[in-house]
């Protein structure tokens, strides 16, 4: 697959969404968790989303329970947690695996397009972020420790 528009995933509401709906937008795809030391990054992600959404920017959150079982809830619990604690309004998707045989095809593609440190493809922890350009191709992979506000200059460059 050559770009992100070939993929789809169900939202937390279970409604399927085809990523071709995001053509021409800059995306930040993040594997999230509600009980992680990086969970406060939801606040920074929401701030970036609100600041740049009118310029064609979307944050896409994918809850994942593969790291320390830090996303144990079901879709309703995840949605409520994100809204109540961080005011999240950006799109959230159904819980996925990001590594292994059951990894969502989107994350297999993202890892192949933007390997991590020393060329490793596996995602190491929650809140790994992938910046996608308006052309649907991966621009850069960011580590969990990279706070959303630290990505702003690269995001602004991608928005043009």
From TrEMBL:
Keyword Oxidoreductase: yes
Domain Thioredoxin: 1-160
Pfam families: GSHPx
Lineage summary: Bacteria, Pseudomonadati, Pseudomonadota, Gammaproteobacteria, Cellvibrionales
Protein name (Swiss-Prot/TrEMBL): Glutathione peroxidase
Species annotation: Simiduia curdlanivorans
Record-linked Gene3D superfamilies: Glutaredoxin
Annotated InterPro entries: Glutathione_peroxidase, GPX_AS, GPX_CS, Thioredoxin-like_sf, Thioredoxin_domain
Keyword Lipid biosynthesis belongs to the record: no
